[in-house]
Amino acid sequence: MALRLASLALLSFFLLRAQSDVNLLSSEDVPDTPPPVTCPAGAPIGAVHLQVRSLTSPDPLPFQSINHLSEGDTVLYSPIEHGAQKRPGEVALVMVPAKHKTTNDFLIVTDPKPASKRQEWKIPQTISLAAFVYGPQGLSRKKVQGFLSQDDQLIAQLADYADKTSQTEALLAALSDNASSAAGMNSALNGFASQYGLSVQIDKNAPPAAQAQTLFATMNPQLATYDPLSSSTAGRVAQTASVATAAATLFFGSPIGLAAGGTAMLLDLRSIAFPGTQFRSSFAQQLPKAGLNLCGQRGAAPPHTRVAFIWASRIPNIAAPSIHIAASDYIPQTQKTPVPVEVAAVQWKYLQRSRAWALENDKGQKTPVTVLKLGNQRAIEIDLEKTKAPPGDYKLTGFWDWAPFQAIGEIHVRPLSTFTNAKIEAASQNQLLAHSGKVPVTVEGGDFEFTGKVEFKKVGDEFAVPEPVRFILPKGLRAGPQDSMDVQIDTTALDPGKYALLVSQQDGKAHPLALNILPNPPRVANLPILVNQGAATQHYVLKGVRLDLLSKLEAPGAKFDLGATTAGGAERNVDVALKSNLQPGATVPIRALCTDRTAAFTWADALQITGPLPVIASSKLSLPGGMAIAILPDEFPAGYTLSAMLDVKNIEPKSVLRLDCAEDVGTPALLHLGEQNAVSSLQQLSQDQLFLSYDTNTLPAGCTLQAVIDNGRGGRSLPATLAHMIRLPQIASFQLAAFQTGSEAAPEGVRSQAAPESAPSHILSYVLTGSNLEMIAKVGWDQDNGIDVAVLPTPLPGPGQQQSLSVNLWPPPGPHVMLFVWLRGEKTGRATTVSAPPTKAAP
Q1: CB 399 within 8 A of CB 405
Q2: Residue 96 CA to its chain's centroid (Å)
Q3: Each residue's pLDDT tens digit, 395-434
Q4: Of the four, 290, 342, 432, 578, which is 20 to 30 A from 172 by CA?
Q5: Cβ atoms 501, 512 nearer than 8 A
């Protein structure tokens, strides 16, 4: 591509002196003269028209592309006009017959003719090689003699020179054409190098720019630093000009001779036909309207010696080529595309001389196209860049001189894909896991037959550089429509995130296809999920890694409700509701859907149905005897041994009874059926009845004691509340503090409290002894009226937590009345078994 960009500046780079000493003569039948041109090396020596007219056709063809030069044909010469100047000197033709009968006709040299006029030469017999000779100072010609013994060598040297001329002209034409493709440039470079015995090892898989650089370095070590991708316009121009100069310099050889091996030809030709002449090489640059600009080396000649420039061309005289279109015969619209062909070697060598190429449809309509022979690929390049060939199937046609020919096989023209619906296959997307190594990926939803490059890039990273990706087309490049392709993505060093696959066709435009590199999928360590038959909704906690990636769970006959994730994705709550009557022992697969994944994956046997859940239907407690303070129905005094009868369902021999506080305080207790020790006992009295005995000393006051039956994989029962543990005061004695008279008034503040209207106006002081007396907030003679306890209990000396508490009360309303106490936080007094002491002192 860089060579094409630089080629426009190639000719202008060498601003050599103008054609001041070369006069051009106008002619009525010669087209208008193009603007002056320059040469990459040497200087212009004259612009001319050289054509051939056949007896079979009145339309002349360019001499440089002629394939047959036979008896009766005419070579037409005319100088191209430039201003009012006239072309000096003389011109002649040197021809080698295809067959020479005697030693006198191995070389045909025409008489010199004025170069300023239109000239014609009739061809006397079939010619295999022709050379155009121009002498600015005229030509001194003598009759050709047949006494030389090296005539065959001279002819071989002329043929070698013609080949070098052809290859040099092809290379310089490619360099000067800004539309030259990379494939066409490489073909011209390889063809030129082969003519000079340059041994070039080129990696055919390397980019075209790299191949060109290898060849340039071989041609001239000074070009080893040539950079076809130089970002500097001046740099590209200078480097491209250097390539052209190197090619022309190799062609010219020494200043006084022809290309390699040309010295002997120089001497022979001078001795045979042009005495006193110094021959110099010349190559032609094609001009518009079939004109030729001849380039040669100028400069002084030895004394008494004329300078003559020679330009030679082989005439193959072979039949029209038989071209077989090989595989990869699908080409995209608006592009230059190489198409492999099969052509006989002798015809392949001169295939580039075919002309008037066209694509012909089944209706006989022809679309002109440009075709270039790619000598190093055994292929032809069909140029549709400026041709509006509609999609369809075509025959490739052309002309060999004036004779038409048609290639065998078809050319299929198709549009480039837009990849509007292209995407990564769902199954492939699920395999793209971070750090998992090389992953094969299928891309679908487009026509990939013209895909030439695939790259991979991270989205949203401004420093990311696209990296090449290996890809395989099912049929191969340009082998017909292909709705998928396979690529390989190495995820070893890739982190999870969004990426783009960049698919490029011959036009070089990258089409991004979105894909995700996924984190590894969630892994659950505690499968299967156990669900009891008959239960409405059951809770389960999944445990594993990356559980936060789960978006949905599905299973036949069940509904899942995913809850919150805890512990960094290590745990996930899930509620399960059975929607069908699955029997115990049944296992069901679960389909798990994850974030950013296009398909679910399946956990086999991940849901297991067990028997019905165990149930604690009811419980009955046995309260301890001798309690001084009344106990409410849902209470049990802490510190006593709890005895309870439990009515249960669906228990198993391995069932475990779990006792703990609903407030999640204290240490849970686990009791097995039949177990008995110093603090607990659990005995099965019948299939549906358990007897529990448990020392509550370890339970804190305020604990709501609940029981759960755990059947292991069979599930757990719902919690059943047994009792609310309460710490009750224990009263050992209740006595008057001292003898009281009826005239003592109630202390200030006591009368203000609610009291019976019949209560006397004075109070008595009493003393309670026992333990846990700090729980008492009030005392009174009924459950509705009480007096606050104003002091804290006082500890008594001796073992145990014995206390004494002073309280104030009105005198009892009658003998044997019972004391009521209010525990802290309660609004109603509790009855006790403690009676009022006598109010009179003993004698």
Answers
A1: yes
A2: 63
A3: 999 999 999 999 999 999 999 999 999 999 988 998 999 9
A4: 342
A5: yes
